[in-house]
Amino acid sequence: MKLSVIVPSFNAADTISRQLEALANQQWNQPWEVIVADNGSSDETVAIRKASSLRLIAQAYSTKIPSLRVIDASDKKGAAHARNVGASVAKGEALAFCDADDEVAPGWVAAMGEALSKYDFVAGRNQHWKLNEPWLVKSYRVENGDGIAFDHPYLPVVGGNNIGIKRSLHEAVGGFDETFLAIEDIDYCWRVQQTGAKLHEVPDAILHYRFRTNIMGGCSRSWSVGFYEPLLYQKHRSFGLPKLMSWKIWVKTPLNLCLDVLRLKICDKASLAGSLRHLAWHIGQIQGCIKYRYFPV
Fold this sequence. Notes:
This protein is α/β, with parallel strands linked by helices. It contains 10 helices and 8 strands. It has helices at residues 16-24, 51-62, 79-89, 108-116, 134-140, 167-172, 184-194, 215-236, 247-262, 269-292; strands spanning 3-9, 32-38, 68-72, 94-98, 103-104, 121-127, 162-166, 200-208.
């Protein structure tokens, strides 16, 4: 087996069919498989509740994706754990990760597979118009899509929803750190690069990314990112990670939000959503600093 596509899934009943349909339509001239790692869904995703429901989803796509396997990864919460469980049973020489609420574009599997025949660690590019409302894309300022952030002051970073890696390298770094319930992909990305491996972008590995569909969902996600950042900095600062948080920002953020309202800079749904996510992010940072006893002074 050349490639194993691993899809962590949690309560993705409304979206996973679209992702599996996209994977079913992929074409590549090498052997590859799809592994859905269910992280304890309580909806009808792969329904860990009853074996019969598990069989239903497998049967629905078994003819379209003969190599499809649905596995139980419910013993520990988090996408990191689901990805690790999926990788542990994978038969492929290389691993490609995508999420259950996104949609891979035509040619994604072939692009990932071919890239991993040349490189040890790769990432594709995300597009945002297909699965999101225009105001939401505008609020995240990703109208032109995104990929690897090569301009990060420490090491390049990329999300875990569109990455590929040689299985041997994944095992060498111990997989994803399951302590993190958010930004586990950033930690993983940095640990892989700390081995000396380079992160290569694959422009043809396009994935349609889905944001949280409402403002509160986006704020919750931003809060989680902020909450785990102190743990991330604490873990990597001995490797040269610069201090990226400041107590001054925590003070300025709510003040700037109030000023933006008064100046009418927050005048539509997109600007409101972006400002509230920014505030939630910093609130998460403060709580994370208290939790993990990391104070950026």
